[in-house]
């Protein structure tokens, strides 16, 4: 069977780390295939958009996004598609490629699509779905720091309006929106968890060798001698920071405690507390 792995999850849930692990498992077996590479798009990105790469894999990684309604209004060629191949040009952030063609030629897809969307007909060729899961409190803190980072302020004019990370966290309306978005994503996943290989960020932090071995086994890619050790070494926070300095902030679990005020706790409890408990991050609402 030809492997076609779709990795998904809410942004800043450890998805990049999971993708790097899966990519290395596939690469070590000569199974890593990319639509972008097949069509020379990786060379085009490296030539024209190197300054817009948040991480190096942007060049070849087949990143799928849902078409925003505003895109369809601005670019009529998108009106008949539900998904597009993401592109690092902020002025024209997509390629009009039938997603079925991308799936047919790729062995590793990356997306922040919700689990329901990954069940769409366009992804019928996918053989395995991997879902990255992380404590939503850490997700929101990490996301707001990320959106206000230098690279994201450069790429997204709207991000410049957020101010600093502290400003973004102080905007309680925006904080609540981020919490609700995480909860909606996770609540869509939980009833369908049997359709995915779930990878918890916290497990990767606490015992990465065991987490990588389990992921490899569930994908039918049983580890080879020395392979786990090599992957662990390549994906330490220090190694990842050197590899993708714009993407990693701290790479730890529980950092939300350093940023949540009583108001943040109350808002998150109301907006996403049920999802936090359902996902196993708290026993009840008394945290």
Structural description of this entry:
47% of the residues lie in helices and 10% in strands. It contains 15 helices and 7 strands. The protein has a 7-stranded mixed β-sheet, sandwiched between helices. A hairpin with a 7-residue loop joins strand 3 and strand 4. It is globular, with a radius of gyration of 19 Å. The termini are far apart.
Descriptive terms for the model:
alpha/beta, 15 helices, single chain, 287 residues
Write the topology of this structure:
Layout: E1 5-9, H1 15-28, H2 35-38, H3 41-48, E2 62-66, H4 69-74, E3 83-86, E4 94-95, H5 99-105, E5 108-111, E6 128-133, H6 136-147, H7 150-155, H8 157-160, H9 165-170, H10 172-189, E7 197-200, H11 201-206, H12 208-218, H13 227-234, H14 237-243, H15 262-278
Instruction: List how many beta strands DSSP finds.
Output: 7
**In angstroms, what separates the terminal alpha carbons?**
46 Å
**Percent helix among the residues?**
40-55%
What structural category characterises the helix and strand content? alpha/beta
Compact overview of the structure:
The chain has helices at residues 15-28, 35-38, 41-48, 69-74, 99-105, 136-147, 150-155, 157-160, 165-170, 172-189, 201-206, 208-218, 227-234, 237-243, 262-278, and strands at residues 5-9, 62-66, 83-86, 94-95, 108-111, 128-133, 197-200. By secondary structure, the protein is α/β, with parallel strands linked by helices. The protein has a 7-stranded mixed β-sheet with strand order 4-3-2-5-1-6-7, with helices on both faces.
């Amino acid at each position: 069977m030809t492997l076609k792995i779709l990795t998904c999850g809410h942004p800043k849930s450890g998805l990049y780390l999971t993708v790097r692990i899966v990519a290395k498992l596939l690469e070590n077996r000569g199974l890593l295939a990319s639509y972008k590479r097949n069509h020379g798009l990786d060379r085009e990105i490296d030539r024209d958009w190197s300054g817009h790469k948040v991480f190096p894999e942007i060049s070849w990684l087949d990143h799928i996004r849902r078409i925003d309604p505003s895109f369809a209004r601005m670019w009529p060629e998108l009106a008949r598609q539900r998904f597009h191949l993401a592109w690092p040009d902020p002025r024209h952030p997509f390629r009009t490629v039938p997603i079925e063609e991308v799936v047919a030629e790729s062995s590793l897809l990356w997306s922040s699509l919700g689990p329901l969307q990954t069940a769409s007909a366009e992804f019928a060729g996918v053989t395995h779905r991997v879902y990255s899961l992380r404590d939503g409190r850490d997700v929101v803190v990490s996301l707001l720091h990320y959106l206000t980072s230098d690279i994201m302020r450069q790429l997204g004019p709207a991000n410049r309006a957020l101010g600093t990370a502290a400003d973004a966290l102080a905007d309680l309306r925006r904080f609540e929106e981020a919490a609700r978005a995480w909860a909606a994503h996770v609540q869509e996943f939980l009833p369908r968890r049997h359709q995915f290989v779930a990878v918890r960020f916290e497990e990767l932090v606490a015992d990465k060798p065991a987490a990588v071995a389990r992921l490899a086994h569930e994908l039918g890619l049983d580890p080879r001698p020395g392979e786990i050790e090599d992957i662990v070494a390549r994906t330490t926070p220090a190694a990842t920071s050197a590899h993708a300095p714009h993407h990693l902030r701290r790479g730890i679990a529980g950092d939300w405690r350093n940023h949540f005020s009583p108001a943040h706790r109350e808002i998150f409890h109301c907006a996403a507390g049920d999802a936090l408990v359902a996902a196993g991050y708290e026993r009840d609402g008394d945290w």
